[in-house]
Specification:
This protein has about 210 residues and is α+β, with helices and mostly antiparallel strands. The protein has 5 helices and 8 strands; from the N terminus they run βββαβαβαααβββ. The chain has helices spanning about 40-55, 75-85, 100-115, 125-135, 150-155; strands spanning about 1-5, 20-25, 30-35, 65, 85-90, 170-175, 185-195, 200-205. The strands form 3 sheets. It has a 3-stranded antiparallel sheet, sandwiched between helices. Strands 6-7-8 form a 3-stranded antiparallel sheet. It is globular and about 65 Å long.
């Protein structure tokens, strides 16, 4: 498992996040993503990630590769990895190829983020990054024999029929109990991504933010 931290972003997100943390399986290249307000949250997110993925598949995390960032060299981080049998491997400072998988992924991620954001609202960078990872995990890749990372990880093909163009106009339905008789039954919004915890889209309402 390779890991890297992106940021700090110059503009904080709506949720006051400044960093994006990626975990990439070195075999099937599936990427997991977390957003942080502070670098010190890395350890807490890693613990959450470890228990989540190991509960989903029949494999344990055996090695974690990262750079020499201060967020990874704390006694707390290394004591935890030692106790659960995870080998930590550090890349050499200023030598990107030693953690090449993560560096290449994050470089591509930032290029795509700048392209998708364009003149869009900069504080929505979290939604953009999240959408890019969601799509990349479901795209075919030569790395895993023309399968998507999602299929290589889960064992079944992903459903992509629900994909929508980022930034397009969308309308959120307003239930009758929450509107008056002369009010519209929907609010005009902007499509900004997919929800990981619900079968739903993420929409941004410019009026109410």
């Amino acid at each position: 498992m390779v890991n890297d931290l992106i940021g700090p972003f110059q503009v904080k997100s709506l949720g006051s996040h400044s960093y994006a943390l990626t975990f990439i399986d070195d075999y099937n290249i599936i990427t997991s993503l977390y957003f942080l307000k502070n670098k010190l949250d890395c350890f807490k997110k890693f613990v959450h990630f470890k228990y989540l993925v190991e509960n989903q598949i029949d494999y344990k995390i055996k090695m974690l590769i990262f750079d020499n960032g201060g967020e990874y060299i704390s006694n707390e981080f290394h004591e935890f990895c030692s106790n659960v049998g995870i080998k930590c491997q550090f890349s050499i400072s200023y030598t990107r190829r030693k953690n090449g998988v993560a560096k290449r992924k994050n470089r591509s991620l930032m290029d795509m983020t700048r392209c998708m954001l364009g003149d869009f609202l900069k504080f929505l960078w979290v939604e953009v990054v999240n959408t890019i990872i969601y799509i990349l995990n479901r795209c075919l890749t030569k790395v895993v024999d023309e399968k998507s990372p999602f299929e290589a990880w889960i064992g079944k093909k992903p459903i992509v029929s629900h994909f929508v163009i980022f930034g397009c106009v969308a309308y959120s339905f307003v239930v009758s109990k929450k509107r008056k008789k002369l009010e519209n039954g929907s609010n005009k919004c902007i499509f900004v991504g997919y929800d990981d915890h619900h079968k739903a889209y993420r929409l941004y309402c410019p009026f109410s933010r």
